[in-house]
Structures are given as structure tokens and as C-alpha cells.
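PT: before anyone asks, these are the final sequences, not the draft ones from last week. 718 residues across everything. Please model them as a single complex and drop the result in this thread when it's through.
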Amino acid sequence: MNVSGLIYPVILCGGGGTRLWPASKHVRPKPFLPLLGEETLFEAAQKRVVGDRRFAAPMIVAGATHRELIASQACAVQRLVIEPVAKNTAPAIALAAALLQPEDVMLVCPSDHHISDDGAFREAAATAANLAHQDWLVSFGIAATYPETGYGYIQRGEPLEGGFRIARFVEKPDLATAQAYVETGEYCWNGGIFAFRAGFLLDELARHRPQMHDLVRQAVERGEEEGRGFRPDHESFAAIDGESIDYALMENTDRAAMVRADMGWSDIGNWAALSDALAAQPKFCDSDGNVVRGHADFDSCRRVLAMSDGPRISAVGLEDVCVIVSDGEVLVTTREGAQRVGKLPGAVNQQTPTRGPCR
Amino acid sequence: MNVSGLIYPVILCGGGGTRLWPASKHVRPKPFLPLLGEETLFEAAQKRVVGDRRFAAPMIVAGATHRELIASQACAVQRLVIEPVAKNTAPAIALAAALLQPEDVMLVCPSDHHISDDGAFREAAATAANLAHQDWLVSFGIAATYPETGYGYIQRGEPLEGGFRIARFVEKPDLATAQAYVETGEYCWNGGIFAFRAGFLLDELARHRPQMHDLVRQAVERGEEEGRGFRPDHESFAAIDGESIDYALMENTDRAAMVRADMGWSDIGNWAALSDALAAQPKFCDSDGNVVRGHADFDSCRRVLAMSDGPRISAVGLEDVCVIVSDGEVLVTTREGAQRVGKLPGAVNQQTPTRGPCR
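LR: through. Structure below.
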């Protein structure tokens, strides 16, 4: 039984810094950019839980490369777990679990998502934590508002207290399938936000991925405290076969559950998604749906995102286009093209390699 | 009777530097930019006549602002006439005429047009000069290959030796009218290239614009030689009511003639026109019709012009768009929008005012 009743937020800071290139780069990926207002996504992820007495101070899991960014953007005194190498989400989450008490309920949050309704997030977290206490592995199911083909979907099964069993997981479906999912109302997007009892997560990992479990345990046992930070043993952690928490556990366990969350969520997965998230806020948007961050002039444009770190952008006659000027690079992409930005030579051939977990 | 038989080219260097903003600016307008290859349009305008024994060394008419650009791009020893203020084309041409001998045939050429077939240009010039000797005011009629609404049209009348009388002038028609013109085959674009006998031009100006004629005469009489340059009297020239040669003379005279010229002409009047002129040359163009000047990466783009003076341009999914990066400004425009670029705040609010003739 969890004595404190607290929820322990675990914020994962990773990502390769390619899909929002050129603003996002390996050396300063998406979580650390003020994409939606003054705050960075990482700062917003912390503020979402800090100050609410149901939540403990967050634990941060990140690569060493971003240590200084984290220090400069950390909102509160907190524990930092430094991944020696990027091994995807399952090992990162298991590291955090091994550093908590078995009865602690952890709330795993990506650092690079946008959530406009923080209150709805916290309510869903409390509901999910309640199920996690009962040894469910709980995923946040995001109300699917349109047939997005870039997300994973989860189908709800029998009702539980405040949530549902998960009937099944579906990786990125085609458009027709996604449309059918949205119409049935039985499917949600898999938002990558989870609640687990730390001990139960490790038990399930031992069952489904015993080698990963043992190597994480060993990495923690042989790890070193470093001020408020913790450095797991490099050799043990490097030996892990990296895997996402969905593949390693959620799709294998009998105890997968979901809570529905309707909280204005976006993974800000590309420039079109950021454009949508900004356009949803009247303060960023003109009457033609154009959004400016920086200095831009529009003539006869609709639904254009113009974002610049300095040079003025002048746009004429464009519709549904994103223009990004950052760090001496100029990107111009259609909404449809936004999904391919990460494959551009400029995004691929960045000089500093990523060290964070790649998701 | 013209004793030498030479044709005297007069190259007009003016323009506000707004329609090809941000590459073209008041301080360095279109004629002085290497838009189509290594050469600037001004250099190309000179080379078109220099070296052919039918032509004298060109006379240049320009504003004082561009004096250094002209000196650095002049191909041959030549006379420079410095306009004290910009007064459109009629006074500029009359200045040149007053500095030539009455029997000299002058060939008036804008400095900022593109002509891909220089041989055809020279043949048309010789034909036009022959008519000019016979006291026709001769305009080059450019074969209208599509219904452009941004140009003036001239309708041919009765045949003359190598050309036609001009039946009438039409300012920028609407699309339906332009289409009808192209279909009849009787209309050409008014290319802004002219041949006149200097004395007859001044006689006709005295008849139709006597005040302008007298002020130009006075500006020349009171002007000053300055090395190879000539400075007309500021006060006299400033008192002129500026007007284009078409309005002041061509539409009023009984002696308007035209020669047809099919010479790969473009006025490079906006970014779309430049894009077309570049795309017509295989060396500039990839198989999807994209043109790069500078450094650019394309993914799924068609008919995109990407021109940068430094920063890389990365473009995804675009069609029929021009992306221009110059001097710390970023312009993105559709083909249709290209006509409105000159009205953008960046183009309008340039710090140094134009001093060249505004056309």
C-alpha cells in the first residue's frame, strides 16, 4: 500500500531533434524550445504537476548532452537520472521505477508534448494512479478527434473503475482504418503517458523482458550518485536491447488499462501539428489562421505558420505552408510535407549526435 | 542622312528595386544583379551590342545613386548621362537624343530585360534602325506567346519595310481581352525597346510635349561635362513633368511603327517571370522544373525557384512557389503572388530612396 498517496511524475527528455528541424536540433531538441509561448515544453511538463499536492517533485530522465539545458529550465529541486546511452522508453522508465519505492505510483510523461488543459490532465492522472495502485499498467487514451495516421491507437475493452481494460493496441493505421476507428468511438490515441506502480512495472518487466529487467537492476546497483543526479552503470545499461514501453510491456501484459483523457493534447510531432496547436490559441493567430512567431508580413495568406529567430519572413499568396527560419537555415514545407522534414539532409546531417532516448 | 550608318544604343538604368525584392533593392536594383547566370542584366544589355560593328559604344542613362555599380559593370568606354532626378522614360530618352547628332539613329534598351536570342535582337535592331532613318518612331513588338495581363499590347497596322505601322496601343488588358489578342495574331507585347532618329524624336517631342522638349534642351545647354559623364542642369530637369515615352509620344505621333521581334524576351518583371526565364535553360533546372541559385534541398517539389545569398533553403512538397533569401530577408511567394511583392512592407520601406527613373 502506498503510504503517502503521492504520484511520482517521471519526465522523459529525449528525441532526436529532427522532426521540428531547423528549430529543433540534436543539441537543443523540441522539449527545450519555447514553441508555444514563453515556456518550453519541458517547463510546461513540470509546471503541470508542480504545485499540486497530489504530486511529488518530478524525476527527470535524460541524456548527458542535455544536462545544462535541464538545469537551466528545471522548475523545482528534483532528481535527474542520466541515461548513459539512448535505449528507447522501456529501459528509461525501468530505471526510474528501480529508483522509486515499490509501492510508489509513477506517472510517466514525455517532456515534448503539448497539453492545453492541465486540469484535465491532473484529473486523468489521479484516476490512472488509482488504477495503477490496483496493479494495472495504465495508458492515457487521448480522445481521437480526427483520423490521424501517424499515431498508435488503443481499443477499449471492459470497464474498470474510472477507465477500461485495453482490448488491443494498433500501430499507425492507414487512413480508412483510422477513419473507422474514429467513427466507432471505441479507439483512442496512445498518448505515451502512463501510470504504473513501480514494483509492479518491474515485476511485469521481469516476466516479459527478463534480460532488460536484470540489466536495469544491475545498472542501478552499480550506478553512482552525483549530487541530485544519478548515473546508472554505463556498461550494464549499454548492454540492453532498447525497446519502447509499448512493445516491451503494454502489448504483452494482461494488465493493460486505459483512462480517457480529453485535454487538448498534441505530440507536436511536426510543423503542421505545431501550427495547429498555435492556431488553436487566438492570441497567436490572425483572422486568416496565420500564426507568426518572430517578425513576418503576410499578403493573401491562409493558415501559414511563419517562425523566425531573426530575419523577417514575407509571405504572399501561401496556404497551409510552414516557413521556419532558424540558426541560418530556411525551411518551407506544406502541411503534408511536414512529416518528411526529419529526412531532409539538413535534419539528418547534424553535427552533434543525439544522446537522449530515441522515440 | 546618317553618315556613319551606326546605331547608337542608349541603355536606360532605372527601376525602383521593389518587384524583385529582397534581392533587388533601391541601392542595387534589378539591372545590377546576376539573376540569370554570372552576368548581370546590365552587363548582358551591353554585351548584346558591343562587338557588333553596326553599333556604336552604348550611352548609359542612370541616376547618380548607381554610378559606382555602373562603373564596375561597364563593359566598354562609354558615355554616362546622370539623371538629376527620376522623371520616367520620355525625359531620359530625350536627354540622350539631345546629346547625339540629329541624324544619329538611337536604339533605346532597358537595362533590366532578359533576351535569350541576341542575334534575333540585333537583326530586329537593324530593321528598326532602317525604319527610324525614314522618320518612323519604332517600337519592338514582342511575339505574344501567352495572354499576359501585366504588359501593354500594340496592334499592327499596314505593312512597312520590315515592319508595320502601329494601329493602336492598349494598356494592360484583362485576361479575356489578352486571350483574344493572342488568338488574332495581330497584337504584340510592347517591349519598351525603341529605335528613333534623334532629331526626329526631338521634333515630335516639341510637337506633342513642347514644355518637356524645352526643359530637356535647357537641361542639356546648362549641363556640365564631368569626365566621360554628363550632368544635365538639375533645376531644368527637375521642372519636367515626368512621363513615359509611350504616353508622351508613341500614343500621340502619326509615325508610330513596329518591328516584330521573337527573341526569347522577358522583362523579368517579378519572381515568377525570373523563374520562367531560368527554367527555360536546362542548366539551371532539375527534371521537376525546380531551379536553385545558391544552396537548396528539395523533397517532392515542382517548379520551385529557390534563390539564396547564403543560408540553405530546404523545401518540402511545394509547387509553383518562389523562395528568396537575400540580405537577411526571407520571401516566400506563389507565382500569382509574385506580382504583389513590390507592395510588401519590406519592399516599400527601404531606407535609401530611389534616384533612378521610375518605370
